Amino acid sequence: MLAFIIAMQNEADALLSLSRILSEKVVCDKKVYTAEYCGTEYLLVVGGVGKVNIAAATQIAVSVYGADKIVNFGLSGSLRPEIPVAEVFEVSHAVQYDFDLAQLNGTPVGTLNEYEEPYLPLDRTHLFPAVKLGTGDRFNDSEADFRFLHDTLLADVRDMEGAAIVQVCKHANVPVYAYKVISDVAGSGSTTEQYLANTARAVQNFQASLPTIFAAFREEA
To answer: Mean pLDDT for the chain?
Structure first.
């Protein structure tokens, strides 16, 4: 089953509002929907904000519902001015930039204990321009975070969930895809104010891309 793992209800509603909802329940405090859109039945789990929440939601989809393809979409902050607000991008690689075993393992920051490189690759549909995603459990305007993400990790966008979904899927050997729509751009004022001002437009733009995304997964089926 195709499963969407989404952090927030307003992000999930971008798809659910266009779909025919078949069932709704709560599993481990996570809302779980089965629904149909563009002739395709899918699962959607609203995981909540942050890496632990979203990892739990992903595991529910895989272990409880037998999901064999995971898709994440949601709002993301741009780290580069050429990646503008409301545009949709596809994640090619993701890293947890707040994971640090450098002192113990001598590995670069972001490198998980079971891996040798910081970034994990995702599967691709090649529908949108590719970006590298940095994931961490913080939403801020920290100059130090920005410099580390931009200058050291060479990330293009950041969020609070994506790389954790990828980690779970790698362990489960399940294909994983991610699409990000930009809500704010670092260096263009408060990210919080930008997020609040741009969310509606970003979600609307993402909704317009959904038929193309679903068509790609039907072709793969």
So the answer is: 95
Q: At what angle do helices 51-59 and 162-172 cross, to 10 degrees?
A: 30
- Residue 165 sits in a domain of what CATH number? 3.40.50.1580
Return the ∠ at Cα 131 (arms to 103 and 151), rounded to 5°: 45
Strands 2-6 and 20-27: unpaired
Q: Which of 175, 140, 181 is nearest to 157 (CA)?
A: 181
Give the residue numbers spanning the domain of 68: 2-207
Q: CB neighbours of 55 closer than 8 A, spacing ≥ 6?
A: 164, 165, 167, 168
Q: Kindly state the DSSP code that residue 77 receives in the 8-state scheme.
A: E
What is the tally of structural domains in the chain?
1
Question: Tokens 């990210």 label which residue?
Answer: 191
pLDDT-derived band at 221 (thresholds 50, 70, 90) equals low
Q: What are phi and psi of 72, to 5 degrees?
A: -110, 135
Instruction: Say if 214 falls within a structural domain.
Output: no
Residue 90 has pLDDT above 90, yes or no: yes
The total of other beta-carbon atoms located within 10 Å of residue 82's CB is 8
- Within 13 Å, how many C-alpha atoms sit on residue 55's CB side? 15
208 in helix, strand or coil? helix
